[in-house]
Design goal:
By secondary structure, the chain is mainly alpha-helical. About 8% of the residues have low confidence. The chain has six helices and no strands. The protein starts with 6 loop residues before the first helix and ends in a 23-residue tail after the last helix. The protein is flat. The protein has one domain. Helix 3 runs antiparallel to helix 4 and helix 3 packs parallel to helix 5.
Length: 162
């Protein structure tokens, strides 16, 4: 089994498969291309971590967009909310991706940390851009994340003996 090197290849590999088969495929990829078997496999596993993170982000964005569209259609009276069958499938896929990513993170912690930072950086930049926008600051109180630390005023103890 060839390790996918692009998101399109991963998508083709996992397309239209039940969750049990996806779990088996991802676990076999980990075993066949384990980083300790070959020097090239380490790069393949680092690439797989990145691809699985991309898959995780895309599934979350797709689900959030679908939920937003469903809520808008329901609120406007244009449509009926979709059943929870799709949500259960998404939850199962997210659970599976999180489990596999956790296992890969245990094997290659530095590479996984770099991949997560690389994936999180655009979200962080967008969040800070929105936070600093003048319209957002005027409309509501700005968010304070990460929480600001308050300085404690030191109590000066005065003594008559010194």
């Amino acid at each position: 089994m060839k390790c996918p090197d692009t998101y399109a290849a991963l998508r083709r590999l996992l397309r239209a498969r039940p969750a049990g088969d996806v779990d088996t495929i991802l676990r076999r990829l980990r075993v066949v291309h384990h980083w300790s078997l070959s020097l090239d496999n380490r790069q393949k596993m680092i690439g797989l971590i990145d691809l699985l993170l991309e898959r995780l982000v895309r599934v979350c964005v797709r689900q959030a967009t679908h939920a937003e569209q469903t809520a808008t259609a329901t609120a406007s009276g244009d449509g009926v909310a979709a059943g929870s069958g799709g949500a259960a499938g998404v939850a199962a896929e997210l659970d599976l991706l999180a489990t596999i990513l956790f296992e890969l993170t245990q094997e290659l912690p530095e590479a996984a940390a770099r991949a997560v930072r690389r994936r999180a950086r655009p979200f962080w930049r967008e969040w800070t851009r929105r936070r600093r926008a003048p319209a957002a600051a005027a409309a509501c109180r700005p968010l304070s994340w990460p929480p600001r630390r308050r300085r404690r005023r030191s109590l000066r103890l005065t003594s008559s003996c010194c």
